[in-house]
Amino acid sequence: MPMFTAPDGTELAYRVSGEGEPLVVLPGGPLRASVYLGDLGGLADRRRLILLDLRGTGDSARPADPATYRCDRQVEDVEALRVHLGRERIDLLAHSAGGSLAMLYAARYPQRVSGLALITVNPWALGRPATVEERLAAARLRRGEPWFDDAFPAFRAWLGGEGEPDPAVVGAFFHGRWDDAARAHEAAVDEQTCAEGEERFLDPAAFDPPALRSALAEVTAPVLVLAGELDGGPRPDRARLVADAFPNAEFAVQTGSGHYPWLDDPGRFAGRVGDFLARAGRPSAAHRG
After folding, report:
1. Which tens digits make up the pLDDT trace of 173-225?
2. Could you give the CA distance from residue 93 to residue 255 in angstroms, rounded to a whole number?
């Protein structure tokens, strides 16, 4: 895998998938290795995906200082990747918890972002994460599916702090389709996640919501915020708060999808995001301001 060096000396890796203009991709988890993203439902047919393994995940090294797992401490890793790629500006896609990192990067380096796609991003960085009640309400949308009666009590107990969930039981609530591909995706969560840094990533000290909202209001790059209709973290109304933080954002909901819309409907996902990025890359959009 290609490697580059972060400002603090940590060796970081990234995967490359596809051809064309590069699209830097930040995974969620938090701190899940980028392999879970696959080719983003075929988006690699339209763009060259640069899938970053955040520090401590995948083939990237663990940092000498565990405090640097914190989200705001990784902004300079993204900037170092841009420099490594030799790009004046980058298109950026982030999933889930990776969206907090992407927003912090856009706030610090607005002139380096030509387009930003935020996929099922829970607005932790804005101080407005999904609530337990919202997650349960989204889960109840799945009532009537054959696995619901067994899975819902376990899901509710997990949200109440009663132990770790069994992905084979509660994972269905994160997917629009609970098929073999979704089960395999959930079964790999633990082995792909950096347990050492998982909780540190979303440390509240990483975020200053009022300052971030002020900074994002000055970001002129086009932004797409995509929510999943069945997702509980965030539900579409909660995800819209992310779009509202930007002056040039569009908001979309992928019907029938959960937290991983490229798995639930690959063609629709790749088409929607690919079309947005194509528009964002036009000179009239990419070089505003």
Report:
1. 999 999 999 999 999 999 999 999 999 999 999 999 999 999 999 999 999 99
2. 20
Residue 149, Cβ neighbours under 10 Å: how many? 10
CA atoms of 113 and 194, how far apart (whole Å): 27
d(CA 33, CA 137): 29
Task: Please classify residue 78 by burial: count the beta carbons closer than 10 Å to its beta carbon, then call 0-12 exposed, 13-18 middle and 19+ buried.
Answer: buried
What pTM was computed for the model? Answer: 0.95
Can you say whether the dihedral through the CA atoms of 81, 82, 87, 91 is positive or negative? positive
AA letter at 228? G
- The residue with tokens 């994160």 is 174
Which helix (H) or strand (E) segment is 52 a member of?
Answer: strand 48-53
Q: Which residues contact residue 110 at a Cβ distance below 8 angstroms, ignoring those fewer than 6 apart?
A: 215, 218, 219, 220, 221
From the CB of residue 101, how many other CB atoms can be counted at a distance below 10 Å? 27
Average pLDDT in the chain: 95
Q: Mean of the pLDDT values across residues 155-181?
A: 89
CA dihedral over 147, 150, 156, 161, signed as positive or negative:
negative
Strands 223-228 and 249-254: parallel
Give dist(CA 191, CA 229) in Å, integer: 28
Could you read off the pLDDT of 27-44 as tens digits, one per residue?
A: 999 999 999 999 999 999
Closest-CA residue to 212 (of 126, 119, 114)? 126
